[in-house]
Write a structure and sequence with these properties.
Elements: H1 21-27, E1 29-39, E2 45-55, H2 57-62
Antiparallel strand pairs: 1-2
Length: 77
Amino acid sequence: MLSNPNTTCPKCKHADQVQKLVDVYAANTQKWTEEEPGMDVFGHVGGRQIEQEVLTKLGLKLKPPQEPTPPGNPGLK
């Protein structure tokens, strides 16, 4: 495990098991993109990209909150 020499555990004062929260989240998350084939209203064959994500229980707890939707019409940005 990589550790920052300036970061130590507040209880035991060792740095060998200290990890960044971002790294722990990344280790407990798997993301990939799949293409879903389809057809538009004009009959053109195409597809759309669908982003998939799988989280462990720890990854779910560490997941950052989603950005809130602005007030007013939630469909507009």
